[in-house]
Design a protein that fits this description.
It is built from 2 helices and no strands. The protein is mainly α.
Length: 87
């Protein structure tokens, strides 16, 4: 009787173990992605802060935009480093 029960339970336990393993791996992957996103946001914020300081220094807007684009290359989408505001 116990052998019959164990034969039925073994596939269920194996499935449960695999599910738990994949769930842990998925959570770790999401954590790594979140950390990368945080780093990107901080880098974009630093680039925008540098652009603000550039404008404060009296440089022309097109010069500051070029500097912003250079510092954001490969980091964000779009001409304005992932952020655009109204004028």
């Amino acid at each position: 009787m116990i052998k019959k029960y164990m034969k039925k339970m073994l596939p269920a336990l194996a499935t449960l173990a695999l599910t738990a393993t994949f769930s842990i791996a998925h959570a770790q992957h999401k954590d790594a992605e979140t950390k990368e996103d945080i780093q990107r946001h901080r880098a974009m914020a630093a680039a925008h802060e540098a652009a603000a300081k550039c404008l404060e220094s009296g440089k022309k807007e097109d010069v500051c935009i070029k500097e912003l684009q250079a510092s954001c290359k490969g980091l964000a989408v779009g001409k304005y480093c992932g952020m655009k505001h109204a004028h």
